[in-house]
Amino acid sequence: MTSEGVEPGTVRPGGRTARVRESVLRAAGDALAEHGFDGLDLADVARRAEVGKTTVYRRWSTTTGLIADLLDDMAEQSTPRTDTGSLIGDLKANARLVVKTLSDPRQGALFKSVIAAATCDARTAESLHRFYAIRVQEWAACVTQALERGELPAGTDPGEVIRAVSAPLYYRLLAGGGPLDTAAADRAAEAAAAAARAGVYVM
Fold first, then answer.
1. Distance CA 142, CA 53 (A)
2. More confident residue, 89 or 78
3. In the predicted model, what is the mean pLDDT of residues 127-131?
4. Does residue 72 carry a pLDDT above 50?
5. Is 64 or 170 the better-scoring residue by pLDDT?
6. Which of 7, 24, 78, 168 has a CA that sits 20 to 30 A from residue 96's CA?
7. Buried b (16+ CB within 10 A) or exposed e, 108-125
8. pLDDT of 103 over the 50 cut
9. What is the 3-state secondary structure (H, E, C) of 110-137?
10. pTM
11. Residues 97, 43 contacting (CB under 8 angstroms)
12. Chain-centroid distance, C-alpha 107
């Protein structure tokens, strides 16, 4: 913490400072995708972003502080959820977005690096959990709407349904459990929808 009690990398800047933040976070994402968490170096990030090392060290101070800010920015920039008017349509849209992200060479490698870092660093884990909490909350609204339409049993937990959609897709990313494609996305959505209709996620 700083003397004012603010964690480095958590203040939202404006103007030129915002442009510097954007450049540094883009550079950090590139470095993570290329070299992983162990290879992330603040000096290298500064070089890639074409800003002074002191600027990066003063604002973020540590690689975990930089990753935390990167994850917050990723959550803010994420694509809004789709509203197709049906549960299965919405869940397929969610699954296909996950597949599009994880199968992207840069984004897939970036998520692998951040997830690996979260297994051994508490602050990175906290930031990653916050990122996914935001994304789950965004898409959980489609399950809430399905409940209102009577498509699902009362008491269904919307967050659990959304997590059930993405879980098998992340397994494929991290454990090599098959291709990440549209067919895999649709199967994950259909399985989650079927389980939800059967009352599996009633809490």
1. 44
2. 89
3. 91
4. yes
5. 170
6. 24
7. bbbbbbbbbbbeebebbb
8. yes
9. HHHHHHHHHCCCHHHHHHHHHHHHHHHH
10. 0.83
11. no
12. 10
Residue in the block written with tokens 């991290």: 174
Place of tokens 């967050």: 159
Buried b (16+ CB within 10 A) or exposed e, 53-76: eeebeebbeebbbbbbbbbbbbbe
Q: Provide the 3-class DSSP secondary structure of residue 192.
A: helix
Look at 8 and 25; give whichever has higher pLDDT: 25
How long, in residues, is the chain?
203
**Helical segments of the chain, H only:** 15-35, 42-49, 53-60, 63-77, 87-103, 105-118, 122-148, 158-175, 182-197
Domains and CATH numbers, the chain: 15-74 (1.10.10.60), 78-197 (1.10.357.10)
pLDDT digit string (tens) for 163-184? 999 999 999 999 987 899 999 9
